[in-house]
């Protein structure tokens, strides 16, 4: 938007009695981002921590491992795979040799998506496994053995039983 369009909108907003701050932001130009953060922080109350400051998250490690695999899928396929792909960790255990064994199911909605994930001769699933394994090892600071399976669950996003089992 141009300033000619934006300035009257800002004026209109600042004239409203229940709006105290108006900060025009452009993420693409990185304009006023710091000002926005400072403004939001000024409204946050001070108080005790809800969790131990040493905790990075309340989510289990399995969650982060599945998200690493999911991120690898999305960055590897760009627009070929819809964001309806889910990753479920089915097994996560330490083996006798000190390596962690992780088995994950990549869940898609259509048979055609399964073929895209696997790729010709299994080339793409192997690539996903290698990239994910490296990132997971860095995250866990431990060697792992990663096993990936692709499963089709037709329209899983529309079925409450699947949504609940996947944590939604």
Structure description:
β1 and β2 (100-108) form a beta hairpin. The chain has a three-stranded mixed β-sheet. α3 runs antiparallel to α5 (123-140). The two termini are 36 Å apart. It has six helices and three strands; from the N terminus they run αααββααβα. It folds into two domains: 3-43, no CATH class; 61-165, GMP Synthetase, Chain A, domain 3 (2-Layer Sandwich). It has helices spanning 3-14, 33-43, 61-77, 111-118, 123-140, 160-165, and strands spanning 86-94, 100-108, 144-152.
Summarize the helices and strands and which ones pair or pack.
Blueprint lengths: L2 H12 L18 H11 L17 H17 L8 E9 L5 E9 L2 H8 L4 H18 L3 E9 L7 H6 L3
Parallel strand pairs: 2-3
Antiparallel strand pairs: 1-2
Helix pairs in contact: 3-5
């Amino acid at each position: 938007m141009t300033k000619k369009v934006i300035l009257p909108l800002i004026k209109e907003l600042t004239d409203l009695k229940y709006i105290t701050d108006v900060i025009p932001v452009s993420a693409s130009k990185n304009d006023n981002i710091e000002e926005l953060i400072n403004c939001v922080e000024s409204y946050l109350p001070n108080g005790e921590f809800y969790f131990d400051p040493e905790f990075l998250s309340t989510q289990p490690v399995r969650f982060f491992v599945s998200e690493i695999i999911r991120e690898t899928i999305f960055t590897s396929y760009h627009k070929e795979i819809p964001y309806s792909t889910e990753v479920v960790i089915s097994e996560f255990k330490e083996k006798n040799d000190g390596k962690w064994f992780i088995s994950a199911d990549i869940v898609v909605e259509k048979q055609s998506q399964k073929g895209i994930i696997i790729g010709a001769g299994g080339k793409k699933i192997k690539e996903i496994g290698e990239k994910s394994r490296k990132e997971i090892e860095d995250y866990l600071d431990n060697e792992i053995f990663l096993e990936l399976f692709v499963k089709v669950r037709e329209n899983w996003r529309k079925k409450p039983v699947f949504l609940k089992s996947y944590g939604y």
